[in-house]
Amino acid sequence: MVSHSNFIVIDTVGQSILQELAIVDDQGNLIYEAWTESPSQYPHPSVQAKPLEIIIQDFIGLAQDKTIICHYARQDIEVLRNTFRIMGIDKPPLKFECSFELAKRYLPQFDRDALAGLNQQLRLKQGTESLETNQVHRAKYEALFTFQLYKRMINELLRARLKQQPNPFSSSRVDTPFQDHIDFRAIFQHEFERLKSCLIDIKQDRNHQSKGAVVIGEPGSGKTHLMMRLAKDLLKTNRLLFVRQPNNPDTVLFHTYSRILESLIQTVPGSDRTQLEHLLANSFAEIIKNTDAYATPIIQKDDRILSIIQADHLKLFTELGQEDTKVKREYWQHIEKRVYDWWLQNFSAAGYAPKILRGIVKFCGYTDFNRRQIITQWLSLNDLAQDDLDKVALDSWGEAVSREEISLTALEVLSKLSLLDEPLIIIFDQLEGLGLAQNESLLRKFGEGIKEIFTHVPNSLIILNLFPDRWEQFQQLFDGSIVDRVSQSQIFLNKPDDQALRKLLDLKIQPASVGLEELFDPAEIQAILQQNSIRSTLNVAADYYRLKIDGIALPRRFSSGSIPEKPALTVERQLHQLVQDVAQIKQVIDQITQHLDWVKPESTETGAVPSPLSVAESLTVSSLESPDHQLNHSIQDDLQKYLQQQQNQLTVNYHNPQVITESDDLGKLTAILNALSLIVSPLSFDSLKLGKKVVPEHLRVKTITHQFVVAFLHQSGSRFFYRLRNLNELMEKHPEIQFNLCRDIKAGPVQGKKSEALLDQFQSSLNGQFIVLDRQQRITFEIVYQLIVDIQNRDLELDLTKALNLLLMIYRDYWLFQNLTLLTLDL
Asked: Rg (Cα) of the chain, in Å, rounded?
């Protein structure tokens, strides 16, 4: 079969010579119709009869360089051959294909041969018309329906060929710069070069002052994709550090440092070394070359190291002895001393900087995975068990430390190491949620944090990816000094023209070995190109692909002009709400007294405390028990597809190096509860106090029927012991509250007999539940949080309220939702 865009369909009427001819182009348009008989025989007032010679000339012109499709082609060929012979015309070079023969090959399940029969079985129509018996043997109708038949066979052939291949358009979203997606370089190449020129300016500046750039574009315009291009081109020379939206106003700098550390422990593509190892190797190569700056005389180890790294700095990690040997330990102790001397000579021994620098060298000096995990936890400012600290020869941070202060110092250390390498690229992305009303304090803290970074962290290009309206909002809220530093370069990403988008679509479909015009007709291509962003264009192309290949109907897309926020209530509305709440409380009490069997609740493995009677229906959760009548199938399908994609992606990435902190998890929980307050009313949360004693990061959640606490404790060592001891004391003071203590499995088992005894005490209490966040528990928590953030950032075009209603049903057995929707009784 020929290409989808290089053919015409004809039908002839006549015995020994041509009497009627109709021609349909490759888009199904009737482009020619004529006959040689008188109008009385063929009454068609819109077309006049023509001399046979003119009809043949017209035919030859239209058929040039085209494949000719006919049904029972042998008959049409015979009519044309006789006509050429009678008129004394040499037969032109023509290529024919027979839809009858092709139908037998590609549609063997249909047993009829006649065109009318095939069209009836296939239910083909031209507009609203079916091929009727009285239309058979009329050239116009047979040509039009032959086109429909041929198009159906093309689709069947494509479907068979592409059925087992992945949808080439489905992967349209770039979540982080470290992903690998097809990149059409002509799109935003000028903007890309502008960002690279900023790095050159920083490097050439004698003071290496950091510069800011705001990349401004609508949702799906390609902001993170542009960051991915930076990563692909520059990761071998520059360190690219990705920071997603902070979620806790008290720990903005700590969040920034944690996410930067997470980027640094990622492996550089095309290398088996992490970004942190590249940074240290390149920086140390400059340190050791400067022999005049040595605090102690040159020794043989210096000469050996210089000779090893002369050709390749990364040989620092492979040529200095085997793991756990005395030779390697002594070399890395020497490296640690040279780095420390460099720091003292150029900066200061005061503060946390030398300690952080030592941890960085320790991380790079080990290849053992377990030791690196310990050092990563230490660099994340977590307290560790003494046995773990001894394994890597590091000291405890202690209890009385400021994570914000240490985090800013750590960023300063990394940037000053980069002065011996290349400028850092620090990217803040997914920031749109900061503009929500409930995040105003977080946004202000973020602005203050950015100001601190510009003040203390040199040699860095700091990029903020923002929507245009969010950038306007940020400018109004931040003071002028922050705005001026951040927006030294403003880069706008506008929608590319249709020609560029077509080339991008061609590039995406190239692995499938099929052309764009072969897969989609012009109307479909136009519908794809008329979308308002690159991502929407690719999403609609994916939808049309599913329609063609899988037979899945096009979805009815949801579009939202704004992110739903919880509206402020007037005094009258508050009073009305209070009356409703009192009525609901009375209703719950009545249900309890009438139906509830009074038994003591028992803990479950998932962390929920069930009651004999579920009163989820007594909570004012919008359509919780039956979302189907509120959610159309399109939204359900889109949500299910998103959840499956996130599940797959998070499962694949689960064992990648990660930095898990209690403050980050608390911020995620806060975002989840803020979103759930849209559909669960009333819902509020705060924290409990125990005098001046430090308890784990936690929230107390209050609904109309009950309250519960969710706490996170990923620490080890003395911090785990003292914070859990204080939590046990707090729990004893509040027997009416269910306490859920979460610990990520990657934090390792609880060590120490005293800590184990405290944990046993917590678990044996009536209102205490210890939840180990294993792989699936962690993935579900991240999916729920990411769904909310993606909708708020308009990366996912779903209504937040409807999505949450359905989410509560899908994950109704998840411990957090069980705590939220089940009544806990204190007996």
From this structure: 35
CA distance 241 to 422: 13
d(CA 642, CA 635): 10
Is residue 247 within 8 Å of residue 241, measured between CB atoms? no
State how far the alpha carbon of 20 is from the alpha carbons of 12, 42, 60, 346, in Å. 6, 9, 15, 93
Q: Are 493 and 215 in contact (CB under 8 A)?
A: yes
C-alpha–C-alpha distance, residues 752 and 756, integer Å: 6
Amino acid at 713: L
* Range 79-88, long-range pairs (CB < 8 A, 24+ positions): 79/12, 79/14, 79/15, 79/16, 79/17, 79/18, 80/12, 80/18, 82/16, 82/17, 83/14, 83/17, 83/18, 83/52, 83/56, 84/56, 86/16, 86/17, 87/52, 87/53, 87/56
Place of tokens 């399109």: 634
Selection from 306, 225, 238, 242 nearest residue 275 by Cα = 238
Q: How many helices (H) and strands (E) does the chain have?
A: 30, 17
In sequence order, which residues have a C-beta less than 8 Å from that of residue 487 and are 6 or more positions away?
212, 213, 214, 475
Closest alpha carbon to 124 in 157, 148, 159: 148
pLDDT tens for residues 602-624?
333 444 333 322 333 333 344 34
Task: Report the alpha-carbon distance of residue 631 to residue 222 in Å, rounded.
Answer: 30
What does the DSSP assignment read for 584-625? HHHHHHHHHHHH---------TTS----SS--GGGSEETT-S
Q: How far is CA 718 from the centre of its chain?
A: 38
In terms of Cα–Cα distance, which of 330, 356, 349, 329 is closest to 417?
Answer: 356
Q: 698-719: per-residue pLDDT in tens?
A: 999 999 889 999 999 999 999 9
Least confident of 453-462, 603-612, 782-791, 799-808: 603-612
Per-residue model confidence as pLDDT tens digits over 1-36: 555 568 999 999 988 899 999 999 988 899 999 988
Rounded CA-CA distance 130/536 in Å is 35
Non-local CB neighbours of 303 within 8 Å, separated by 6+ positions: none
CA 4 to chain centre: 34
pLDDT (tens digit per residue) in 69-120:
998 889 999 999 999 999 999 889 999 998 888 877 766 655 444 445 555 5
Give the other-Cβ count within 10 Å of 310's Cβ.
11
* Type and span of the H or E element at 465: strand 460-466
Q: What percent of the chain has pLDDT over 70?
A: 84
Q: Which of 179, 261, 195 is nearest to 423 (CA)?
A: 195
Q: What digits encode the pLDDT tens for the residues 54-81?
A: 999 999 999 988 999 998 889 999 999 9
Name beta bridge partners: 69: 9, 97
